[in-house]
Amino acid sequence: MDQKKLVGLLSMLVLVVVLAVVMTTGEEQPEEEPVVTEEMLEEEIEVEEVSQEENQVEGEKEEKENEVDEDDEKEEDEENSLADIENEVKEDYQVYIVVYGDTLSHIAVDHRMWWPELAEFNELENPDLIFPDDEIKIPAR
Fold it and tell me: How do the domains of the chain map onto residue ranges?
């Protein structure tokens, strides 16, 4: 016999033996009945009770979070409505064009109001800096 054929036959034989061993060790063995003791049952009951308590606590947390979310939404609605009112008030105004020599104080007095009120209405960062051709909003009274 040729040496290559002999090696091939031997490798096939080894493969068959390995498969046979694997298949015999993989046979199903009868399952043993699990033994349940009283301690195991008590532990299972305790675990269920703890799980129920945790679920209850989580439910309460979710309810509180929902209440907080609702409160936040109410606050946002109130803030939005206040902002809308402020915008409506700011929309009702006249425009004054600043000329050389004007001061915010003089413009305010001419329109029967205080200069800080006029500065706030116009959202001026520095009321001392107004220039000719600037537009100053005069709120309607």
Answer: 39-91, 93-141
Category of 133 on φ-ψ map: left (φ > 0), alpha (ψ -120 to 50) or beta = left
| Phi (first) and psi of residue 32, to 5 degrees | -85, 145
Q: Answer yes or no: are the C-beta atoms of 93 and 137 closer than 8 Å.
A: yes
**CA-CA distance, 127 to 131, in Å (whole number)?**
11
The pLDDT tens digits of the residues spanning 54-68 come to 777 787 778 777 777
pLDDT over 90, % of the chain: 33
* Residue linked to tokens 């299972």: 44
Question: Among candidates 115, 116, 122, 131, which has minimal Cα distance to 95?
Answer: 122
For domain 93-141, the question of CATH label 3.40.50.1000 is answered with: no
Task: Provide the pairing of β-strand 93-97 with 135-139.
Answer: antiparallel
**CB neighbours (10 Å) of residue 141?**
7
